[in-house]
Amino acid sequence: MTSTFHNEIKLGEVHYRLSATTDPDESLVLELLGSLDSGEVVADGRLRLPVEGGATIGKLLSRVLGAHTRLRSRQPRHANANQPWTEALDTELRTAWLTTAEESSPKLIRSLADGMQRSPTAIRARLARVGCDPDVPGRELSATAAALLGGNPGTGQGKT
Fold first, then answer.
1. CA of 155: how far to CAs of 87, 98, 130, 143, 152, in Å?
2. Tell me, what's the pLDDT at 132?
3. How far is CA 111 from CA 3, 29, 107, 108, 139, in A?
4. CA-based Rg of the chain, rounded to a whole angstrom?
5. Nearest CA to 29 among 15, 49, 9, 11?
6. Considering the chain, what is the average pLDDT of its residues?
7. What global pTM score does this model have?
8. pLDDT at res. 155
9. Which of 66, 30, 62, 35 lies closest to 49 in space, CA to CA?
10. How many whole angstroms separate alpha carbon 55 and alpha carbon 30?
11. Which of 101, 112, 128, 156 is the most exposed place for a label (fewest CB within 10 A)?
12. Residues 47-106 pLDDT 10s
């Protein structure tokens, strides 16, 4: 005996229609159609699976699609994340680090990260690249530390 279940939902500007049909050979056929008000199809597909696996596969699809949606819709936390560093930004970072010695390293890194709209991890990593000791505000990297951290040695202008 064949039976069919239909459900429709509108998400944003897309109308989705999902049909689940069992056919005589004990398969469950899922058909999905997503279309705009204009009639343009933006999603379609068909999936055939054993009837007894329907609920389990449904849970699996829900988890996978939910995770994918969360990843795709996640806004970058920091506006300048993954943007290239310029010479001017490097100079700004270096100057800010070398002229501020009153704050603790973590606090100053967070402050610079907020101001430059980057993550604290990005700021800490960049400090070594511009010749600053990321553990001590106001101090440049020694040649040895620069070699270990992959940065540029200080020029002797910062506090020691």
1. 16, 11, 10, 10, 9
2. 92
3. 62, 55, 6, 5, 17
4. 28
5. 49
6. 86
7. 0.50
8. 56
9. 30
10. 12
11. 156
12. 888 888 778 888 888 888 788 777 766 666 788 988 999 999 999 999 999 998 788 999
Q: Encode pLDDT of 110-156 as tens digits.
A: 999 999 999 999 999 999 999 999 999 999 988 887 777 766 776 54
CB 21 within 8 Å of CB 40: no
Tell me how far apart the alpha carbons of residues 156 and 106 are, in angstroms, rounded to a whole number: 23
Q: Give the tokens for residue 103.
A: 């704050």
Return the H-helix or E-strand segment holding 88.
helix 87-98
Distance (Å, whole) CA 28 – CA 152: 63
Give me the amino acid identity at 113. Answer: A
Assigned token pair, 70: 């969360």
